């Protein structure tokens, strides 16, 4: 896992296993500028620099994830156990990182057979079992992988994780009572030295008893009914790569993803978003005199369509096309990277009253330049700065609105739609400046530090009127919801002393709402864009220590995350939300023998939330941090997993 300008951390498959990750937040918590909320896979959400996952570009094996089905659920369904790497770009810095990346991008990559096969090995397998005490969860997984004819790689993986409701530190129920099932199949064939074609299919499913409003506390209200629900994702990809030399590295990806929520919402019981897309990216390296060039260029396309069955009266369709060009020009110790991106964004929606709806289209074009500077000062010091113009057109409304109906005391009614001729595209300017240091003072000892200041100015943020007082609005439309400036500081440092590794991080951000649009006559409530978080957040501090004992094949670890208290203004009102501080400590140990007959064995165990702290994430939607209405996080949790690779 990498991040911009030298990286905050190197988090890969090893971190997923040592932390016994069951949710993405278990491995993202150390990264400055990144926040993840949610107590189950049904509603885990990623935030970056004040922007929600609906303002990020998220992909899995190159397949864009756009599963906005229901505003109380997550858009991202993924099993950390199958992740081998994640490329994280905190903030908008490069034109390469895809459409709609207001706050950054996250590219998940799942494991391949080549990652698991040892030198000279043609076939192998890995079995794993795990236990989590807080929710009495048991997991079982198996992978089989191999290589034939020195060119054909195959992998099949399956996992099941069954669990009950967990408990917070103050004995509130959290999460769900269900079963997660995931399977992944991959095949890749290399031929004629420089060619490779790969196929993959993945299914991710959460099924069980979950609250209707999964992002609120289970005890939120009598209306937060716990019922049997299912949320699933299917992703299929085909990829072709051609790498004959530095003059051409070609990567072509086609994909299909379907997010489906099986839950009774209004008149619909099967809600989803289908996305099909393609990406053609190329990289060329060459020199012109004293200048070394790394040219990146390509084309992106995706099409998304919502559905809400059985009625499915008002499905929306979105098409997005993009071309980009970027050249990293290195001259001595200075690298200048100019880039430009062109996007065409088209959304087919509706206008008119029920029974007389007509097609309505939004069309936007945007040219977005960017430039980045990086200078190696010398003796381990470096400095960098960047500017990027950002753009995002209106997304699909949440999938449930594709039903075209809503429920009242009079029964099923039909929804009116209003096309907004005055809707403006969301644009902005993203600035970043910082410095870094990396030095070695012994063979296995080093120190590194990276610090950034960022500022992003968003204009004409878009929101949709999707729900009102727990019900679907009788009339749905899109509108601009004002402007927002977000600035902050991110710092990360690491000290390696032979077998001891110490790391610390700090995040500060400040959100300033401007030109807000009132949603009531009194002017006390405001429209808020779904691209943003619910409010500003307190400062985040992280600390991690790991000590390796080579003679015993052991790794010992400690992790701390602390959020400072803050009085933060709500994004949708003038109310001040009092965010309490909290600190959570984890300890963990890994045993992985490197030789003898036990080679291939790995045991990971840990005690998470050691002091049974009762706390709720500052990113939660509820403004209540004191009662059962809060979305409490799990209390003390013992996790253990045992795997064997052979």
UniProtKB/TrEMBL annotation:
Matching PROSITE patterns: TONB_DEPENDENT_REC_2, TONB_DEPENDENT_REC_3
Entry annotated with the keyword Signal: yes
Entry's Gene Ontology cellular component terms: cell outer membrane
Top-rank taxon, per record: Bacteria
Molecular function as annotated in GO: siderophore uptake transmembrane transporter activity
Protein name listed in UniProt: TonB-dependent receptor
Protein family (similarity comment): Belongs to the TonB-dependent receptor family.
Chief place where the protein resides: membrane
Membrane topology listed for this record: Multi-pass membrane protein
